[in-house]
Batch of 2 targets.
Target 1
Amino acid sequence: MDQSINQYPAFAALFAVVIIVVLVLIGLVIAQNRKIQDLQKPKYGFLGKPLAAFAFAAFLVGGTGFVLFVNNQQQDISVANASFTIDLTIIATETNPVTHEYKLNAIPLVDGVEWGNNKAYKFDVYWTLSNTSTQTEVELGLNIDNKGGITKKLTSGDNKIKATVFSSEKTIEKDIDVFVD
């Protein structure tokens, strides 16, 4: 019986240490859960105000500013005259007599003035060259500063050269015949 009494105080001390460790672990778990809950709480707003009100106000002010900016822009009205006339001149200049190379230019005349003497007038020229075969060529966005022109080798015989000029308001078509020996 003396042995069981001697073992009892050691068992009691061991039991007390286990209890203390378990209580410390439970305290740590509870403290960590509180920290996790605090971090998981969503924090909305700016300086304590809801962000939805700020977003709505920013959208309202920005939209109003944009509408006022767009409405105050000056409208650029270029050619608004529909009563002008367009005529067309085709110039075929032989640049190399040995190879029968020709420089072709289409010159639109707006109310009798070449290119309308205005940068605002823009023209697209569609070329069609016909002899034994048909070739096409396109020049886009020509004006008084960019007069364009194409260079082509013509075949022997009668060559039909047709230019169709498109402007924003009108279309004109003209053709010429060039005979090559």
Target 2
Amino acid sequence: MIFVLDLPAGAPPQVWFAYDPQDLLRKVVSMRLLPPGTQAVHMQAAAEAADHALRARGDCRIWWTEYQATAAFEDTEDPLWQGAGWRARWALREQLVELEVLADDL
């Protein structure tokens, strides 16, 4: 599973997921960040195209596995989580709990 943290300027952080690179690419195309014909690419190219489009759009983080997303959440020293960044960390936690990657024991 792939997790994307969007950090839009002037709006609350949002975390969403995709099942695999093809699903990520479909979601990025539906966001109109890539043209519709882009969907007919192989897995590695799909991941690269989606990654490039998301990063070109603005501030975001992408974790390519549940393990990476969980490790990022648990890394309390990450500068992203400092100050107002707690909202981004909380958004990631909520998505991980919703998908039962983390237990909801807080």
